[in-house]
UniProtKB/TrEMBL annotation:
Residues annotated as transmembrane: 85-105
Gene: tspan37
Signal peptide positions on this chain: none
Entry keywords, A to Z: Membrane, Transmembrane, Transmembrane helix
The name this protein goes by in its record: Tetraspanin 37
Membrane topology: Multi-pass membrane protein
Chief place where the protein resides: membrane
Domain of life: Eukaryota
Amino acid sequence: MINNMISVFQRYTGSSQDPYSDAVDATQKELQCCGIYDYRDWLATPWFNHSGQGSVPRSCCNSTYHTCNGTLELPGLLYPKVCEALLFVLHLIIWSALAVVLVEVGTTRGHWGV
């Protein structure tokens, strides 16, 4: 699951037209976090390396700091907490889906007399 999240960050382009980028930006803004664990997650992404700006997406900026532009010169302006809530929700979805599959398999076997 973490690998899937990392994959989404690896696909980030910064374009609002890109569904991966839009999802990452919306998630970071909504959950007020930056990266999966912290802002340093962005240092290993193609977007960070190709942007040449030495910054993280603006969606990492703490909304109380209007001067934040994502630069790593002042990481204190970025959201400090991790996206733990996102990890919790994803775990919940995975376990719920597994439970549904198990119930469906059990129900199907009951109908077929197995």
